Amino acid sequence: MVAFSHLAVAASAIATVFAAPTANADPDPPDFELGPHNLARRQDYNQNYKTSGNVNFSPANNGYSVTFSGAGDFVVGKGWKTGTTRNITFDGSTTQTAGTVLVSVYGWTTNPLVEYYVQEYTSNGAGSAQGQKLGTVTCDGSVYDIWKHQQVNQPSIQGTSTFWQYISNRQTKRPGSGTVTTSCHFDAWKAAGLNLGSHNYQTLSTEGWGNAGGNSKYTITGA
């Protein structure tokens, strides 16, 4: 099974990565930095990481923009240091010219340790979806496929651990604007036996790998 989407903790930065969907992929984790931007909206995390290629990330006080070319692996975004069942509204666009690109709501919980994704756009149709498909849920005008996948002895926000990934992959892709009702996914996951714990951070992020090229620009709001 392809293993990707690792996350590690450094002394002053939280780290995370979605790795390329290739066999035995094991890239270095990215830096996920606490920043001063948009504290009034509680969007106080800037995610900024790349392994190779050209990635020009510009965080703003209500979102972010990024242009990229020849990117081996990167993930950038904007979010909150503490996740919750907020409705996250994004307005903007993503264009993919090469490689694999996705846009998702992303986060972690502890007790249990879970890494989760609500994938709004995936240029290859799957993004991080892998493992076992458990069913579907309809949220925000589209059917999402629900997946779970176990990571064994992989980096996490609690060090090297074994943990589950929960993934909702939107069938009607939207690289532009919309709202993610996170409670819709969290409730569907719970009904499927996928329980979340205490929330850590939560972001809207753009990710790319495989010599990815393109651009993203979003404004983000959420209670």
TrEMBL record:
Catalytic reaction list: Endohydrolysis of (1->4)-beta-D-xylosidic linkages in xylans
Sorted UniProt keywords: Carbohydrate metabolism, Glycosidase, Hydrolase, Polysaccharide degradation, Signal, Xylan degradation
UniProt key word Signal: yes
GO aspect biological process, one term: xylan catabolic process
GO molecular function, one term: endo-1,4-beta-xylanase activity
GH11 domain mapped to chain residues: 31-220
EC numbers for this chain: 3.2.1.8
Source taxon at top rank: Eukaryota
Pathway the protein contributes to: Glycan degradation; xylan degradation
Active site: 115 (nucleophile), 207 (proton donor)
Top-level EC class: hydrolase
Alphabetical list of InterPro entries matching this protein: ConA-like_dom_sf (IPR013320), GH11/12 (IPR013319), GH11_dom (IPR033123), Glyco_hydro_11 (IPR001137)
Leader peptide range in chain numbering: 1-19
Stated family: Belongs to the glycosyl hydrolase 11 (cellulase G) family.
Protein's recorded name: Endo-1,4-beta-xylanase
